[in-house]
## 1
Amino acid sequence: MSNDPLLQPYTLKHLTLRNRIIVTSHEPAYPEDGMPKERYRAYTLERARGGVALTMTAGSAAVSKDSPPVFNNLLAYKDEIVPWIREMTDAVHEEGAAIMIQLTHLGRRTRWDKGDWLPVVAPSHHREASHRSFPKKMEDWDIERIIRDFADAAERMKAGGMDGVELEAYGHLIDQFNSPLTNELDGPYGGSLENRMRFCFDVFKAMRARVGDDFILGVRYTADECLPGGTGKADGIEISRRLRDSGLIDYLNVIRGHIDTDAGLTDVIPIQGMANSPHLDFAGEIRAATQFPTFHAAKIPDVATARHAIAAGKVDMVGMTRAHMTDPHIVRKIIEKREEDIRPCVGANYCLDRIYQGGMAFCIHNAATGREQTMPHTIAKADIRKKVVIVGAGPAGLEAARVAAERGHAVVVFEAANNPGGQIRLTAQSERRREMISIIDWRMSQCEKLGVTFHFNNWADADMIAAEEPDVVIIATGGLPHTEVLSKGNELVVSSWDIISGDVKPGTNVLIFDDAGDHAGLQAAEFIAKAGAKVEIMTPDRSFAPEVMAMNLVPYMRSLQKFDVTFTVTYRLQSAEKSRNQIIAHVGSDYGGVEKQRTIDQIVINHGTIPLDDLYFEMRPGSRNLGEVSYDQLISGVPQTAERNPAGTYQLFRIGDAVAARNTHAAIYDALRLAKDI
Ligand SMILES: Cc1cc2nc3c(=O)[nH]c(=O)nc-3n(C[C@H](O)[C@H](O)[C@H](O)COP(=O)(O)O)c2cc1C
Ligand code: SF4
């Protein structure tokens, strides 16, 4: 038996958990019709197979119709969910993991224009900034109805074979009752802490009465809202003790902070560039104060920190949730003493930001996550060993190299720069985006183990590639900044990359025209503002940096607002002209009818990339498929068979930004789904 603290079993009531690592509840927004169907099951099962002790499925499954699915939540208020839950729990149990589900009523943290268009309810009329609904203040019949709904849903989950239910309190209805900031009720459910917590205890009592004692009940709640006038740490410890003393629940899952704003949410679930494990010591204090089973997750991305959390007695079970979205096989790799093979979570929060935009959670650098039915986490060997030549060692090229090498092929990579990474290396120039480089480092170490040959400082040409006698050539050369967007004066501008790379010094009065809306524009703004310049970011869009998304925007805003950067939306830079040592920028609008001017000394354009595709077109005539990709074959996961040139000697493909400017996830997905079938 291993003496690794992480691998020790843990007894929670009647349940034996096989180790100390859990996946905490998170809604990946995979439900179909509100049900956990095949996609959901495949995703959950992969983590159970990977060895996790307990997977808490479904973030925030809705117990009531007036808690509509704002990020495609499961609908726990429907009876038809029971067989779907049963299929999932049976499959997970067969893999030796425990499975629980998180139930909630979102209260004001949702929108009335979803689901059945019912009014949003809360214990006050205060609006939640993130979801923007003005809630109805709850009446006695709302309270009774929702308590009943919780009990009904818990009973459904037990019938579906769940090991237990966790109440999502933080930021949702339960903590909206608990917090003095959001509870303005009179009478039995408002006023004193005892009254405010009455709703929570009534819910637990009703659930316990239905599910009996041999079923785990827990709560995920904030023990310190970190808001003036809110639940503070002393109140949080008191709340924790009362929860324990109620005798109704079996564990505490500790959160610190508030989630009613993008900024608050980002402090609760920190993004890359923010400190690791920021609330672990706090969770440890709650455990010490209550001597009660304590769970916690918040940016504990690596095994060493998780091990410390258990060894130091901070928590009983440690959550590694996003870490498992990046690599579902963490526990297996710990057991096999292959920790260095764990694909690292880089805290990009692409997963989370997507669900808040109505999309599914995808991991920025594991394209198989959420696509388990079609994309493998473990690559199968090919029947025939081929020679695969890849040009470009950015995220797309390296993913293609890794996957092709896992297939057992002989892989050679040419890269013009002296280092791998492409645009990732560039983005990692910003301190807060430094973690992105792990996307490259992990692939490099996997490729090196798999025997991939790299030629850096090599501008590959057709002869060099032909000399390798390839069966398959993959062009992953990426793109170069696209700055020719003005009707006049294109020679006067520099690109966001010029600034980020340090190739061009920032001016003193700078206009950034950003209609790509991605990280590079904001990164350039930050570099320039930090250098002491006056900066205006202008975009023709309705909001700026739409590709950056909510949680990713938070650290930028915290920085750029301090530098007094100006944000101008709905205006388009049209042309520029030199005027002595200044530049006159002519500005219009897609809405028409305005002409403005700015006098500045530097224009920075952020407008995506133009594919670097010369080599691809040079290689086309010698290829068998002339570069053709069958999208039907690509999507259905079978090898590419297009034959357009009988004289050709190799298959030719291009992937990532060498095709069209997209993002890191798209580049990696391009590579995985092509290379897994070579
Ligand atoms: C896509 C996604 C959805 C989430 N949804 C929920 C949720 O519904 N309920 C919840 O309590 N936490 C939710 N979380 C938060 C996670 O449970 C966890 O607390 C958070 O990711 C921090 O832990 P980590 O750093 O180990 O990922 C979500 C996280 C992600 C990535
Ligand atoms: S998208 Fe980023 S934060 Fe989310 S799981 Fe992947 S690496 Fe981690």
## 2
Amino acid sequence: MLTFRQLFDQQSSTYTYLLADPGAREAVLIDPVFEQARRDAALVSELGLKLAWTLETHVHADHVTGAWLHKQRLGSRIALSAASGAQGADRLLAPGDRVEFGRRALEARATPGHTSGCMTFVLDDRTMAFTGDALLIRGCGRTDFQQGSPHALFRSVCEQVFSLPESCLIYPAHDYRGLTASSVGEERMFNPRLGGQILEDDFAGYMNNLGLAHPKQMDVAVPANLRCGRVDSAAAGGENAEWAPLTYTFSGIWEVQPDWLEEHLQAVQIVAVREPEEFNGVLGHVPGARLIPLGSLAAQASALTKDRPIVTVCRSGARSAQASVLLRQAGFDKVANLAGGMLRWRAQRFAVEGGKD
Ligand SMILES: N[C@@H](CCC(=O)N[C@@H](CS)C(=O)NCC(=O)O)C(=O)O
Ligand SMILES: [Fe+2]
């Protein structure tokens, strides 16, 4: 049994992989991206998992890792290759090491060449390999920085990846065309750089003449990743400056819980986005709520103030989630949806204006 998700960061075209043992509820994230830490944490939480490890296939040059942020927020441990030269990991991996999550495990294989510290993580049953930038789908990582070497990369891929079963799926760290997965058999046959009958020297000639521009974020990303994505505490403190203990959902909505709202009714603007007959109907409304049906919200948003945070409310929390997105688009920063809407509010027996028991 395995829970598996492939996640994408559009900015850097990076894939992050979530793997978990659904029985033990333990998860690992391979190559998390700093800017996606909130999304990834929401998914881990919604699937009822505990993040045990974040793994890096290498010190990335094009984005900052989310490893340190996850360690701060979720208590996960950071693992990457000892050969990466990174500081601040909880575990430095050697070739052949196993990283366990519940009853499942990933085997770390050294696949240098794109960088000197690259690793490929192979699932215990050899059905999946996470190749980082060593082997991409019909491509491979460049070899012109971070101690890259086409000769090393050629041997890594041939010996450590192409030796896996033909059916073993390949999941890379990037794809720039939207391709999501391949297999060992497919890449051995069709990879234009490393497949077919190509020889090491042909490959080196190819790689030494790519003439690519350096990644845009390289000067920021490499030093940050050599610290496993640690940022100084002042920058990290931004989270605590929130106006309420908000939760972020995988669907991209900021939510506030009914018990917090009940204690802060005066501090916020409560916007009920249902229709008038519902607002005055059996469920009633949160005391002090102002009625602006969802259909009129865009037109009437200017009646709201930016001085006080806004909590949107509807029957179940669905229309009000949409309302919160709309208000953020209209320039309101402090907006959250009331989780569970009036149904949960009433189930928790909080005060209601109007309505019937
Ligand atoms: N335009 C991208 C460049 C990305 C890039 O160079 N990616 C590296 C991986 S870190 C690579 O090996 N790319 C392979 C290729 O483009 O052939 C950026 O600025 O981030
Ligand atoms: Fe890379």
